[in-house]
């Protein structure tokens, strides 16, 4: 899917030409281009740009299987801007940790007194992507009456690093009475936590859509060039049926994302993310089935995107979680109007 027609060729030129570039050198290039802060207003220290531009970058990460925390750093910067904290804290790469209500306690140190006192955090946030390889983590804590956003030293709170199926780093953020100076913490509006979650959902779905697009392209090329019994694989009815199914999954995801990007909201974000989770599993499975043995070789690029599909599928929650969030949003008013508006873009 093309989210931003002007940006798409630039993304492909930069990321496509640097898939083998050392992560440090690639990050320096992306920073020079201003991509980590695209979507953050210039007045807040960002590069400007709308959600479509950020989604185009995220899709490029998925399409080219780039191992840099571009999505995560951008989300961290956007959360900091929303809370009125300095975006420059993410300049050297950052992770973002989302703490749902009740998972992390954030409180002022009463001994310090007033609003100038340090903050103290207790709790854990599991599976924080890139936590072990970035200097900064932006913690977003959902509370009943506020969203607490904090700039943390990643090394001070990370558990031993882990590698996921995509061979990307992650870790658990442990906050055992962690003390953070007041100038690195802000209490923002209660709705900010939900807004960050919605943005995470859309951008992760966009990254999945990029990986889905690449997997489908590789598969189409393979079945049209691979000969068996004197004819291409695509001549077989069973193969054509599976390829058609892949196109349907890709197009359904693109349709859901188009709505989520043009009409941002809790329901559209959850719908796009739920569709992305389902499509990720189906596309990864069926593309490997159509490739046969060559699909699992190290030299062939299919595994670079399918391993990301399986890994990203359950980031920030499973498909069931996003479906539940969508259902909660639809039935919140006790009428059919939210569902009708979500499906059609109109009201009854």
From TrEMBL:
Cofactor(s) needed for function: FAD
Residue spans crossing the bilayer: none
Domain of life of the organism encoding this protein: Bacteria
InterPro entries, sorted: AcylCo_DH-like_C, AcylCo_DH/oxidase_C, AcylCoA_DH/ox_N_sf, AcylCoA_DH/oxidase_NM_dom_sf
A Pfam short name: Acyl-CoA_dh_1
Domain Acyl-CoA dehydrogenase/oxidase C-terminal, first and last residues per copy: 198-309
Entry GO MF terms: acyl-CoA dehydrogenase activity; flavin adenine dinucleotide binding
Keywords: FAD, Flavoprotein, Oxidoreductase
Family to which the UniProt record says this protein belongs: Belongs to the acyl-CoA dehydrogenase family.
UniProt name for this protein: Acyl-CoA dehydrogenase
């Amino acid at each position: 899917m093309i989210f931003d027609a002007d940006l798409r060729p630039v993304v492909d030129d930069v990321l496509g030409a640097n898939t083998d570039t050392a992560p440090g050198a690639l990050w320096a290039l992306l920073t020079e281009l201003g991509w980590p802060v695209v979507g953050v207003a210039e007045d807040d220290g960002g590069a400007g740009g709308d959600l479509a531009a950020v989604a185009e970058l995220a899709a490029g990460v998925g399409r080219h299987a780039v191992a840099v925390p571009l999505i995560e750093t951008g989300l961290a910067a956007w959360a900091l801007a929303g809370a009125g904290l300095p975006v420059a804290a993410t300049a050297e790469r950052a992770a973002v940790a989302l703490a749902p209500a009740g998972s992390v306690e954030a409180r002022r140190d009463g001994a310090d007194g007033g609003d100038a006192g340090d903050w103290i955090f207790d709790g854990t946030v599991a599976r924080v992507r890139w936590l072990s390889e970035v200097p900064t983590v932006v913690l977003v804590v959902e509370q009943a009456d506020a969203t607490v956003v904090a700039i943390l030293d990643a090394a001070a709170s990370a558990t031993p690093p882990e590698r996921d199926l995509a061979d990307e780093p992650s870790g658990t953020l442990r906050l055992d009475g962690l003390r953070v100076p007041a100038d690195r913490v802000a209490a923002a509006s209660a709705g900010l936590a939900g807004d960050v979650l919605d943005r995470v959902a859309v951008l992760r779905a966009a990254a999945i859509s990029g990986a889905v697009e690449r997997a489908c392209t590789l598969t189409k090329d393979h079945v049209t060039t691979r000969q068996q019994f004197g004819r291409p694989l695509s001549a077989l009815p069973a193969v054509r049926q599976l390829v058609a199914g892949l196109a349907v999954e890709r197009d359904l995801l693109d349709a859901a994302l188009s709505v989520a990007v043009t009409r941002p909201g809790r329901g559209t974000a959850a719908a796009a993310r739920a569709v992305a989770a389902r499509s990720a599993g189906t596309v990864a499975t069926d593309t490997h089935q159509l490739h046969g043995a060559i699909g699992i070789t190290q030299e062939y690029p299919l595994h670079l995107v399918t391993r990301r599909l399986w890994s990203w599928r359950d980031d920030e929650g499973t498909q069931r979680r996003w479906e539940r969030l969508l259902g909660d949003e639809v039935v919140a008013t006790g009428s059919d109007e939210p569902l009708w508006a979500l499906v059609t873009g109109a009201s009854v």
